[in-house]
Amino acid sequence: MSITPPPASEVKDHNELFEAPEYQAQFERKREFEAGCSSDEVERIRQWTRSAEYREKNFAREALTVNPAKACQPLGAVLAGLGFAGTLPLVHGSQGCVAYFRSHFARHFKEPVPTVSSSMTEDAAVFGGLNNMVEALDNATALYRPDMIAISTTCMAEVIGDDLHAFIEEARQKGSVPPGYLLPFAHTPSFVGSHLTGYDNMLRAILEHLAKDRRGRPTGRINLVPGFDTNVGDHRELGRLLNLMGVDHVILGDHSAALDSPADGEYQLYPGGTPLGEAAEAINARATVFLQETATRRTSELVRDVWGQEAVTLTPPIGVNNTDRFVAEVARLAGVTVPREITLERGRLIDALTDSHAYLHGRRVAIAGDPDLVVGLLGFLLELGMEPVHVVSTNGDASFRERAEAVLATSPFGAGATVWPGKDLWHLRSLVFTEPVDLLIGNSYLKYLSREAQVPLWRVGFPIFDRHHLHRFPILGYTGALHLLTQLVNTVLEELDRTAPDHSFDIVR
């Protein structure tokens, strides 16, 4: 039986589809079934939740998190694995958890994400997941033939205490994997930490595993660790800058090709990634530069305390000053001079900042996101003369607060800001309604607050589900700052046009 698909003109977007009479009738029946309170009562409560009285109650809660701006550890571990050549991430846990990780990345990058699961179910939760791990490794090596499998865990495996080391050794003894097969692993319980913790744990495990017994003659190379960076353009931009400077380097955890592969008619399971041999030689490098403090704490300890290598941790090079520090530090470590081409890029950025300054100066902003990204963006906002008011990071800690406040203290535009580590997006809602701002900065989950508060949203960070291709462009370096500036000032100009009276609806801005 053949089915004739409807013509393209009849395929409706969900915005139109659910306006159809049958769906409207369904929504009405649903409202009757819910039998909620009156619309007047709903509105009264809505207005109360925007008040200072409610804000005080909201900030007093301790046992509940509402809409946290973070993900769980194994998601970060998957991204770390995807950054190495021929590597297949394997998550020891349920299929549902791994489907969440894959879909989260696929919606952000618009790319397939090769990740497998040990498919734990109820019986494994009672008796342990050894058999699942043995079978998963057997199937993964036979079907997908990776050069390395990066293994992490979910809540289920951690709650029952599954021992990855013991399980992997059992799988080796049973012949599920060939002798000497590369199987780095990290315990990444979802109920503590965040995706940054999981990324760090997995990255350290991979580098430890690859570099074991590889200490040898110094290479003079510089290792560069971008961290949990979901703008694939950043990896290419960082590589371009270091190539312009003539710096021999390797990016540890380069997932740019894996999550931005070309459409050439044939799907590649493992495109790009840091070559495993180069990652193994990282132990012999001259120094390692980390661009995220929170997302690389354990890995930087490995480099500094175990490898005995110089480890430099910088604020992400977002904006002029942060990029200046990055370029200067790399030049110092490598013993090179900064070429004129990079100096010209810096000058073009400053010219662009001057062009847009009038539309950004004095704008009050609220920002939410991962701690390292937020600290980097704060410096950029202050360079623009913008005024951060609310600074929220669900997975931020005391170190984040200290770093953010140090950046804010460098400019009079940061004097009115308050830093909120550990707070969620429901806290941010109270802040925005009691102390209004001109602009929201963060990921797609802020769009609900943007609509409710009638404040425009500048999308940056992870995840961004509702806009396309932003991840393909860098936000680091002078070129990245120019991309950020373009998005930011045009967001402000769009809002000016949207709200402009007829006499100010200008063609020239």
How is this structure best described in words?
- The chain is α/β, with parallel strands linked by helices and 509 residues long.
- It has 21 helices and 12 strands.
- The protein has helices at 14-17, 21-34, 39-48, 52-60, 73-82, 95-109, 122-127, 130-144, 155-159, 164-173, 195-211, 232-244, 276-280, 297-306, 319-334, 340-360, 371-383, 398-408, 425-434, 447-453, 477-499; strands at residues 87-92, 116-117, 148-153, 222-225, 249-251, 287-290, 310-313, 364-368, 387-393, 418-421, 439-442, 457-459.
- Strands 10-9-8-11-12 form a 5-stranded parallel β-sheet, sandwiched between helices. The chain has a 4-stranded parallel β-sheet with strand order 5-4-6-7, with helices on both faces. A 3-stranded parallel β-sheet has the order 2-1-3, with helices on both faces.
- Helix 17 links the parallel strand 8 and strand 9 (387-393).
- Helix 4 (52-60) runs antiparallel to helix 19 and helix 15 runs antiparallel to helix 21.
- The protein is globular.
- The model has no long low-confidence stretch (mean pLDDT 94).
